[in-house]
Amino acid sequence: MKDERDELLDELFRKARLMKPDTGSVEGHFETRLLAAMEEKRSEQYLWSSWTWRLVPWLAVIVIIVGIGSFTIDPGRSGDLFATFTGSDDDYQVTSILSGG
Amino acid sequence: MESELADERIIEDVLAGRDGAFIQLVNRYRRKVFAMSARFARDRDDLDDICQDIFIKVYENLGKFRSDAPFEHWLSRIAVRTCYDALRKRRRERGHIPLETIHYQIAAESGEELLAAEQARSLLEKGMAQLSPAERLVITLLELEEKPVREIAGLTGWSETNVKVRAFRARQKLKRILEKHHER
pTM of this prediction? Predict the structure, then answer.
């Protein structure tokens, strides 16, 4: 059921349809702008992918350095698994003896 | 039919790496894309950006185009979705001041009719700015572009029921907005 407000709205749409967007002046040289935008997008993508590939050797070097460092520089690490687990427990026992717990 | 075949031939050329062929395709559908996008653009710069976005998406996805449907329909779907994205993006960026407004051609016969058309367009534009992006898209395609519900469903990817519900809600909201406007 259409009421009076529906009719008013339909009338507004009917009148508004008489006006068609005139885009002629915006369309001028659109191809040139489009090609430039496409070119820009392509070069951005190329730049991004080329940088990603350039970073790969550096990332590999960092991984190798971190790997070597973790085995040689860190003196706290022990190969004895039992000592690693009991080490933290020793600290707890010393604290509880000293505090009378 | 001949136009469809020609489109396919141009698409083959574009896929073979000829950018010049793509411009042929752009020139063929430019007017249509601009006319539809203008219903959703804030100003001339926004319209240019939306249309560039549409054709870049077409170029990037041309390899996915299947010739079982006309190219124009495939292009329209991309255009409608890009306009919808532009409407949603705009909701997040409020406070825009239009630079150069879009001009209109008026099919009115008298000065009185012309004035009434201009007032109606301006009033609807203010009302539609308060609708959600989905409601605005549906009501524009249905009432201003005069597209049938079935076609809108195909263009948006929403079901026909969904389109009808959104159109109904948009009308209800518009009626309330116009009522408030009359009260002032």
Answer: 0.75
